[in-house]
Write the structure tokens for this entry.
Amino acid sequence: MNDAIVQITLQIDGKEATVPAGTTVLKAAQQIGVAIPTLCHHPKLEDYGGCRLCLVEVESRGRTNYVVSCLYPVENGLVVRTRSEKVDKVRRVIIEELMAHAPDAPELVRLAYEYGADRNRFEKEAAFCVMCGLCVRYCDEVKQKHAVGFIDNGHAREISFIPEIAATECWSCQECFAICPTSYAQAAYLMTEALAFPGRRKKESAPRDAAVERLADIPAVPMTFVKRPPASEPELAK
Amino acid sequence: MSEQQITDIIEKYRGRPGAVIHALTEIQHANHWLPREVMHEVADALEVPFSQVMQIASFYKTFSLTPKGKHELHVCTGMTCHLRGGARLMAKVEELTGLKPGETDTDAKFSLEAGSCLGSCSIGPELIVDGKHYGRMTPERAADVLKQYD
Ligand code: SF4
Ligand code: FES
């Protein structure tokens, strides 16, 4: 049996790419230096296909199709266009939709500029999370702590830190904060911290949180209590 | 529902990560809701992360993460039942139980849910108690039905 890896040749934006079978169009494009915008893709994580930003136009056997490049496997003779009028238009709408949730996320702001997207096109519903799943998948696949997961479904779906796990695992990690495109992972964690194990931040400082360390040096403002006159005994019904 | 019963269900599926939904469904039917500690036990025994058990339990409407009454009442609010007087039926059931849809009484006797088209339009308006369908239900007859349950 011949188990040499089958090589596939395809064309991306007019450039030829030769990659092993099973490679995704996105990886093939990255290998030959063609940039495709992504949001939910991360080289350390399993391909996910959640944000649809990486959509491209593919032409094979005379048929044109629109596929998400981070999941679509290469085929021999495939012709890929990463920018076409239609691709750009669809991407623009996706950016506009995501911006209804996270209007100031830096990656979205940059993409909006590039694609001429209007951040106010859709009514704002600032949930700040764009459901890319990066935090959840990073915690599952890389850290294997499962401290943050998706809960609920449909419109109400959201990420949620599991307080029991977050209390012991997140303090010394907090790595998902940096991969979250919107900073919502951090906000959600801090909310969990505030509700489930408050006070720790004041006592200890998080490992690489210099700002918090500085805050801890500031002496706490002494609290003053105003003495209230004792309430008069309630009249007991005779 | 005794703790032993829950333990038995969990033991049946020990070491089978693929059976989370089966275990949760059985516990839900027996216990009417999924307490958090029980979900932790399921996660440990079936060897799946707790977050995944949570994800499944919160995804499906079958599962309840808050206590439910011994008897589950559903009043259909679908279009057909509505046209046949479903809203009046719902108002009566709300009055009789003192509950709004989604609520459970303090004795955990009844939980009330609104359902949109429960699949039996021809016999609407419908009241369903613990899966038993009462068709062509009138507000007047609802009290007699509820009396049968305690
Ligand atoms: S919190 Fe951030 S990383 Fe996590 S799913 Fe939402 S946007 Fe993505
Ligand atoms: S990067 Fe492909 S769908 Fe998000």
Observations:
- Chain B touches chain A at residues 40, 49-52, 54-55, 58-60 (CB under 8 Å).
- Strands of chain B lie at 71-76, 110-115, 127-129, 132-134.
- The pocket of iron/sulfur cluster (ligand 1) is lined by residues A 129-135, 159, 180-182, 184-185 (CB under 6 Å).
- The longest strand of chain B covers residues 71-76.
